Amino acid sequence: MSELEFLGALHVELLRRSELRPEHPAHELFQASTVQALLAGAYDGDVTLERLLEHGDLGLGTLNGLDGELIVLDGEVWKAELDCTLTRPPPSARTPYAVVAEFSPGPPAELSQRLAGEDLEGWLRSIGRITDRPDAIRIDGRFESIHIRSVPKQHKPYPSLAEAIAHQHIVELEDVAGTMVGFRFADPLDGIEMTGFHLHFATDDRKRGGHVLSYTVLEGMVLIDEATDLHVELPPAVAAPLHGTALDQHEISRLETDS
Known about the structure:
- Residues 1-9 and 242-259 have low confidence and may be disordered.
- A hairpin with a 6-residue loop joins strand 4 (58-62) and strand 5 (69-73).
- This protein has one domain (3-258): CATH 3.30.1330.80.
- It is 16% helix and 40% strand.
- It has an 8-stranded mixed beta sheet with strand order 1-16-2-9-4-5-6-7. Strands 10, 11, 12, 13, 14 and 15 form a 6-stranded antiparallel beta sheet that branches.
- By secondary structure, it is α+β, with helices and mostly antiparallel strands.
- The chain is globular, with a radius of gyration of 17 Å.
């Protein structure tokens, strides 16, 4: 599928807050700001968590000032503090970047084999569960190991995301049960989204969690919601995105790998 065919098949809208509509069709993703703005250090939140939950019950993001990792699961919001412990932020807290979906998955896919994270897409394609459309994804399972991270709150003048991630705190959890939530976006959305898989994790007891760096799952259940609409709310200070952020994203991946 070409880039034009992809964007034609996916209904993408870049909107200001005054243009947002209350209705939420099935298989719609809602996003606050763009990954390009986040990469450049736009960390001032524009959307409250209360408003974010009006648009979806599953998702991820960060908080004002890049203050930790945000996890939206079953309509509840959790914040991964710097040490990857989970707390409950107030509904009035704001997010500079988040993606949520009113999760409407298809039939579950049972994962009954040991699978490393880098093999997830190949396995999903082999069983016909993903195409080239964006996907909201949830995996409930038991993990042999999982590496998660969170980042410290930033202060003005804000650094770039790559600079901020250089100070991330990484935690390894072993033999743990929990849930990964997130999204998979194709390359044509580069600049608007973090392409590939972007996943956050919360343990079953909701005590630990964060942004997923790597993992090995032993067994679990995979639920996927294939998106047909993407609505992006642009804060006043954020311009419509351009392509060309791939190098910055590769730099982030290198920092995560080297840490």
